[in-house]
């Protein structure tokens, strides 16, 4: 960043204008903080040392730059942190649908991919600022760089950190995306959020199907269903497959169980509303998608990043966790000769699991 901001600017008034412009652009809230995340460095290092990041090697690749925004973008003085609600209509805030044979896709992924939309809005916000103050230095980020988004949002006053490690707001719950605008403007900073909304509550720890929240504010990503179904490249550990249930992309259980999400607000952003009935899809139908169909049906969606191979892996596990049905078994058998060893392995596991369930139910039926 190389601009030299004018000393004559009323930065306090500008900060208020920026927050108002952010809301006009569809953000639920905006706050401003500095670049000091030194208190977060020991936490990040402990998390990495315990291997909790699993195969997400990018978490360690940039060293402590993730905790040092001024190193990531030299010249950064302030960070404008924003949040945008994504809870789609049609998903009751406290109910996780578990209908037999129906797939569950995390709420954030049933609409359009948020990365491009939020980056575009942040760019528009930067243009509004530039129109008011002239050229200035900035960079926009939306889950696209080594940035501690939750820590920055907490410091900017947008919420506190919950025991599930997500940002939590007392009037909006946790169903929102975060984004940042790094800037060289010496804006006044907002007070950090020092609330403790969790208290003695352990709902998210109890609700996590795989026990990934190993303690308050401690997440072992290697056990997290979102990690297993989205980030993991290879085979899903056998012992965790039965715990995944019908979840084929993400989980949401730690949010569903959170009492504060009773106050979560349905998004006003049409792009985050369910597309192509992904929130009501049947597992057998999804498993029979060809690669061409998968690419067409997930166009513009965060799901597309999985690729068809891992999509089939995930849906095979979910089919194996359902009650045996002729349709499920027939669909799985169609993929027994799939060219991918990863797919074949999970299909074989699912068929064996369904066969075991049928064998267990047969004596009961006979009685």
Strand order in the largest sheet: 1-2-7-4
Structural category: alpha+beta
Low-pLDDT runs of 5+ residues are 93-98
Helical percentage: 25-40%
Task: Identify the overall geometry.
Answer: elongated
The gyration radius over C-alpha positions equals 22 Å
N-to-C order of helices and strands: HEHHHEEHEHEEEHEEHHEHHHHHH
The end-to-end distance, rounded to whole angstroms, is 76 Å
Q: Oligomerization state of this entry? A: single chain
Structure annotation, total helices: 15
The total of beta strands comes to 10
The profile of the biggest β sheet is: 4 strands, antiparallel
Mean pLDDT: 93
Classify the beta-strand content into a percent band: 5-15%
Helix and strand layout, with pairings?
Layout: H1 11-24, E1 29-33, H2 41-49, H3 58-61, H4 69-72, E2 78-85, E3 104-105, H5 114-133, E4 138-141, H6 149-155, E5 160-161, E6 167-168, E7 176-183, H7 203-207, E8 213-215, E9 218-219, H8 225-231, H9 241-244, E10 247-249, H10 253-256, H11 283-287, H12 291-297, H13 307-320, H14 326-333, H15 341-366
Parallel strand pairs: 3-10
Antiparallel strand pairs: 1-2, 2-7, 4-7, 5-6, 8-9
How would you portray this structure in words?
The protein is 38% helix and 11% strand. With 367 residues, it is of the alpha+beta class. Among the domains are: 11-183, no CATH class; 283-356, Leucine-rich Repeat Variant. The strands form 4 sheets. The protein has a 4-stranded antiparallel β-sheet with strand order 1-2-7-4, sandwiched between helices. A two-stranded parallel ribbon has the order 3-10. Strands 5-6 form a two-stranded antiparallel ribbon. The chain is elongated and about 80 Å long. Residues 93-98 have low confidence and may be disordered.
